[in-house]
């Protein structure tokens, strides 16, 4: 039956209990396996993973570290291409005795560069269930590694801008590598959009850039000096030293498009989509066929953005469609509450109209070569988007760390994970960010005017205010709080085909492991949050992805064992390989043993 069509939902599994176990815990009746691990050979000639003898040459041909966004492109029923982001490296868990970038060997630094980026890998169905495995034999023509050293190109209005020119690229059109690719999305023409998030941490000497650039450096929190926590990529590639190459940092922080079906294609950094700590890149079509991309900027007090293409998507007209992301309008969101400010007392108590809700507008920042921000050129708006959003007339709304964004395929509602913001003070609460010192985060729903993603006004509400349900400041869409799972720090979100919202968490502030949750968003069970799985010690839950046939849930288990003081000589996790092994970030798949719809 169609999910929720009778006012209920098809979600029936028994919720997993919060725990601190060093394993992937799944509901009764389900099975799981690891699809691909950090270090697994994926390119021809790649050696088997050998923790104590890792090399950059091996890492360039092996699956990278810290898997984040996961998406799957079917190639028939039993074979598919899987794309996975490799967000960042944790050298203190990758190398014995690691004491920082200043003392690392150059080979270790090169391993770090190679372990970033992303992977395209071929996977195949195992048996008749929802299990999938890495293809390890025969020709794998699509397998590919993208790293911090892969040649790329800029397109869109800021390509070739003076702000993007460096000694190595005097035309400002050919950046090298991508960094901190967090969440992402896909395009209707079958490519990946992967998002460069916290690129600020890879550079050194940001305090030594020309004076005119310093306000922008500060606005993006780029690393000053050469702190011991820095990876010191500059020791093997001078471009990461901003004292010598101040514009290099402007070449990161973009949405990158990668064609998984063309292993020889050059990844594209799309300047029309702006530059910030990009998280989501969710595409949908406006009613008139224009392409819309929803994007978050994951920082405390940062903004939510969307891009609307100038031209329309034309099914099958590939050459035309692939230009859509190069010309359009970039907007930033302003949220206005409909309840009196006096009713937002910071306790989380709902206002008298019973909802944190209101209306909002998308404010244009730049459209092609036209800037809507006083004192900034169009290219400046695209390269220094945060500063542009700060200055936009009438103001934009500073949010509690906008992470992933997804559009519900059934209702059309746009859901945003706001993971937390412990820096918000009582004086800074607003109806869209109603809790001071917000430890547990919330989920925001945007309903565009006429349900048209191309519109510039919308209604919004908070269906979920996270935390321990016994905490009076939580809200589960009015559902009975004695029945729901505790949930903290929503990060990545996805929908299944029935329109149920799947929420993964990062940084669970309730003291137990992170996990994956399901919440129906309509019908009698709207707000009924149930925990579907927990990840091992120290990990966050990324991905997630429910397959189109709803037989498989893919999750990226990122940074298992990343806890204070952990090291290869004192690991806090042994997942997934068990006793005597080191933790390895991996993509896992979960399916119902009897072949039922996942969650059903
Ligand atoms: Fe990489 Fe905002 O999580
Ligand atoms: Ca209200
Ligand atoms: Ca994330
Ligand atoms: Ca995260």
TrEMBL record:
<dbReference type="Pfam" id="PF05787">
    <property type="entry name" value="PhoX"/>
</dbReference>
<feature type="region of interest" description="Disordered">
    <location>
        <begin position="560"/>
        <end position="600"/>
    </location>
</feature>
<dbReference type="InterPro" id="IPR008557">
    <property type="entry name" value="PhoX"/>
</dbReference>
<feature type="compositionally biased region" description="Gly residues">
    <location>
        <begin position="1"/>
        <end position="9"/>
    </location>
</feature>
<protein>
    <submittedName>
        <fullName>PhoX family protein</fullName>
    </submittedName>
</protein>
<dbReference type="InterPro" id="IPR006311">
    <property type="entry name" value="TAT_signal"/>
</dbReference>
């Amino acid at each position: 039956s169609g999910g929720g069509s009778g006012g209920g939902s098809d979600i029936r599994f028994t919720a997993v209990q919060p725990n601190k176990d060093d394993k992937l815990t799944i509901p009764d009746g389900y099975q799981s396996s690891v699809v691909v691990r950090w270090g697994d050979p994926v390119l021809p000639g790649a050696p088997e993973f050998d923790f104590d003898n890792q090399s950059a040459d091996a890492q360039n041909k092996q699956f990278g570290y810290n898997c984040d966004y996961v998406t799957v492109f079917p190639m028939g029923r039993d074979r598919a291409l899987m794309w996975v982001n490799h967000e960042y490296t944790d050298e203190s868990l990758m190398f014995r005795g690691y004491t920082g970038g200043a003392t690392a060997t150059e080979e270790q630094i090169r391993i770090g560069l190679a372990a970033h980026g992303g992977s395209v890998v071929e996977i195949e169905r195992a048996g008749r269930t929802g299990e999938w495995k890495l293809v390890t034999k025969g020709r794998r023509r699509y397998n590919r590694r993208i790293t911090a050293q892969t040649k790329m190109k800029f397109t869109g209005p800021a390509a070739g801008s003076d702000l993007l020119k460096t000694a190595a690229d005097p035309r400002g059109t050919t950046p090298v590598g991508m960094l901190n690719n967090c969440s992402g999305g896909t395009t209707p023409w079958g490519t990946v959009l992967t998002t460069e998030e916290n690129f600020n941490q890879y550079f050194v000497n940001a305090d030594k850039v020309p004076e005119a650039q310093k306000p922008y450096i500060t606005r993006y929190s780029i690393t000053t000096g050469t702190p011991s926590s820095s990876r010191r990529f500059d020791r093997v590639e001078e471009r990461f030293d901003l004292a010598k190459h101040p514009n290099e940092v402007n070449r990161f922080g973009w949405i990158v498009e990668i064609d998984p079906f063309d292993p020889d294609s050059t990844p594209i950094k799309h300047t029309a989509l702006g530059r910030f700590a990009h998280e989501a890149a969710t595409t949908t079509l406006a009613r008139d066929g224009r392409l819309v991309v929803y994007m978050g900027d994951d920082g405390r007090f940062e903004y939510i953005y969307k891009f609307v293409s100038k031209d329309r998507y034309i099914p099958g007209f590939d050459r035309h469609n692939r230009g859509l992301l190069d010309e359009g309008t970039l907007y930033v969101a302003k949220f206005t509450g409909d309840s009196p400010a006096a009713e937002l007392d910071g306790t989380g108590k709902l206002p008298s109209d019973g909802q944190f809700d209101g209306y909002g507008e998308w404010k244009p920042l730049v459209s092609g070569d036209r800037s809507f921000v006083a004192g900034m050129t169009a290219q400046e708006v695209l390269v220094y988007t945060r500063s542009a959003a700060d200055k936009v007339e009438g103001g934009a709304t500073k949010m509690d760390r906008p992470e992933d964004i997804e559009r519900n395929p059934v209702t059309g509602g746009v859901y945003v994970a706001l993971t937390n913001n412990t820096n918000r003070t009582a004086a800074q609460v607003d109806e869209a960010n109603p809790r001071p010192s917000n430890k547990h985060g919330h989920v925001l729903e945007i309903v565009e005017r006429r349900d048209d993603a191309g519109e510039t006004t919308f209604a919004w509400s908070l269906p979920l205010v996270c935390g321990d349900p016994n905490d009076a400041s939580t809200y589960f869409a009015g559902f009975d709080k004695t029945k729901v799972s505790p949930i903290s720090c929503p990060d990545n979100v996805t929908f299944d085909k029935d329109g149920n919202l799947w929420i993964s968490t990062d940084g669970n502030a309730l003291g137990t492991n992170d996990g994956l949750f399901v919440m129906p968003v309509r019908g009698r069970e709207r707000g009924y949050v149930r925990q579907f799985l927990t990840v091992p010690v120290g990990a966050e839950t990324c991905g997630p992805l429910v397959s189109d046939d709803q037989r498989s849930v893919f999750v990226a288990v990122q940074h298992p064992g990343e806890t204070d003081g952990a090291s290869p000589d004192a690991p806090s996790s042994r997942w997934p390989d068990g006793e005597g092994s080191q933790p390895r970030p991996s993509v896992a798949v979960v399916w119902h043993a009897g072949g039922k719809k996942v969650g059903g």
